[in-house]
Amino acid sequence: MTTENPHGTLFRVIAPDKHSRVTNAELFFDLVFVFAVTQLSHTLLHHFTTHGAVQVTLLFLAVWWVWVYTTWVTNWLDPEQTPVRILLFALMLGGLVLSTSIPSAFEGRGLWFAVAYVVMQVGRTLFWLLVTPPHRTAVRHNATRILIWLCVSGVFWISGGLAEGDKRLYFWIAALAIEYLSAAARFWTPGLGFSSVEAWRVEGGHMAERCSLFVIIALGESIVVTGSTFAELTWSAQNIAAFVSALVGSIAMWWVYFHKGAEAGSEMISKSEQSGRVARLAYTYLHMPIIAGIILAAVSDELVLKHPDGHADIKTVLSTIGGPMVFLVGMILFKHAIRGFLQLSHIAGIVALAILAWFASDLSPLWLSILTTAIMIVVAAWESLSLQSGPEE
Questions:
Q1: Taking a C-beta distance cutoff of 8 angstroms, is the pair 2, 11 a contact?
Q2: What pLDDT does residue 303 have?
Q3: Is 0.90 surpassed by the pTM of this model?
Q4: How far is CA 311 from CA 125, 151, 365, in A?
Q5: Which of 46-50, 117-121, 387-391 has the lowest mean pLDDT?
Q6: What is the DSSP letter of 201?
Q7: CB of 330 closer than 8 Å to CB of 293
Q8: Can you give the C-alpha Rg of the chain in angstroms?
Q9: Shortest CA distance to 309 belongs to which of 359, 364, 360?
Q10: 100 vs 126: CA distance, rounded Å
Q11: Interval 8-32: pLDDT, tens
Q12: What CA–CA distance (Å, rounded) separates 203 from 37?
């Protein structure tokens, strides 16, 4: 919750024991990333090779990083203030350029993607630095550290945009490595040293809600893909069954994340004395496999809807089993970070999916989809029942 800021700055004023709500401007900003997630799943579907998967993974990491960095900044700055709201609208423009460039990012629009990404990352951080009052020294130093690291990685992004072929991939891998490792290294910078834990303190409820909304974005994109693909088909018993399986699978993923986990995460980070550290691990890093699993499952849904019969090919097997498995790996790590114990139901689900993979090539895509959905239903039901009486053993 934000209140009138007596100092006239653009930072949020957090009322004691109040949850800082997600603003309409932030929700509007997220719409760009609905499109980005759709572009990622479609790009993977059309480039489902080892090389293509590496490229799409890199693009996904970039999209996630620009979104989550913005989430951190709007956790501190108040989007109800007009300058911050205009910042978000400007970032939406950059996000649309970024998203529309995704399918051709390793072809003719690589420089567009790189420039959009660098402008968003550097521009937003520079804005944060400029609007931070001089007396907030720790915050200003934090913004300066991040700006320096992003400028260094930006050189590699632009160089990659100008390069061609595998050289572009290598430049961009180096750029992402710099950005991801810089956060893990607490943005150490000569003369400024490491950022402190106190400088990263966040309003936990807001951070948890923002990341939960991105999960909704990914699940929503999966449902849109399912619906639009199904609408274009001549309906038969097989693709109707595939349609139902895809929808129920999305519902099961929603249940696994939201029934207990999202609320527990919000409560835990809100009470933590080291909310910045929790946000970095549980929400910045461990949400990546959760989102990636949902995107991969969306690819599977489209493949199965279009070709429910015959033997499952390698693309169908990898996406149909890999999506739920990557999702569950992310969920078990996330819930361990916020609860301190491993979910037995999630371990069982991962093992069951691994066993199913052994027989997957002998099954039709439809039956493979039905069985993976059944496993996710069991995981969701098991966790729900077990947590009524306490932690899973």
A1: no
A2: 93
A3: yes
A4: 50, 49, 7
A5: 387-391
A6: -
A7: yes
A8: 21
A9: 364
A10: 25
A11: 489 887 665 666 788 999 999 999 9
A12: 26
Question: Within the chain, how many helices (H) and strands (E) appear?
Answer: 14, 0
Show the tokens assigned to 176: 């992402």
Could you tell me which of 19, 18, 21, 2 has the C-alpha nearest to residue 10? 2
301-330 pLDDT tens trace: 999 999 999 888 899 999 999 999 999 999
Tokens describing residue 106: 């390793």
User: What is the dihedral sign for C-alpha 152, 157, 162, 164?
Assistant: positive
Which residues, 6 or more positions from 230, have their beta carbon under 8 angstroms from its beta carbon?
A: 239, 243, 305
Dihedral of the CA atoms 225, 227, 228, 234 (nearest 10)?
130
Which tokens hold the place of 330?
């992310």
Is pLDDT of 43 > 80? yes
pLDDT at 274: 77
Residues 6+ apart with CB under 8 A from 172: 58, 62, 114, 156, 157, 160
Between helices 261-271 and 314-339, what is the axis angle to 10°?
Answer: 40
21: enclosing H helix or E strand = none
179 phi, psi to nearest 5 deg: -70, -45
Amino acid, single-letter form, for residue 6? P
Q: Rounded CA gap, 331 and 348, in Å? A: 13
Give the domain ranges of the chain. 24-200, 204-386
With beta carbons less than 8 A apart as the criterion, state whether 201 and 136 touch.
no
Determine the Cα–Cα distance for residues 318 and 312; give it in Å rounded to an integer: 10
Q: In this predicted model, which residue has the larger pLDDT, 2 or 369?
A: 369
| Distance of alpha carbon 65 from alpha carbon 370, whole angstroms | 33
Per-position b or e across 140-168, b if 16+ CB within 10 A of its CB = bbbbbbbbbbbeebbebbbbbbebeeeeb
Q: What is d(CA 350, CA 384) in angstroms, rounded to the nearest whole number? A: 17
The encoded tokens of residue 356 equal: 């199913």
Confidence of residue 384 (pLDDT cuts 50, 70, 90): confident
- Are 350 and 376 within 8 A, CB to CB? no
Please state the φ and ψ torsions of residue 107, each to the nearest 5 degrees.
Answer: -125, -110
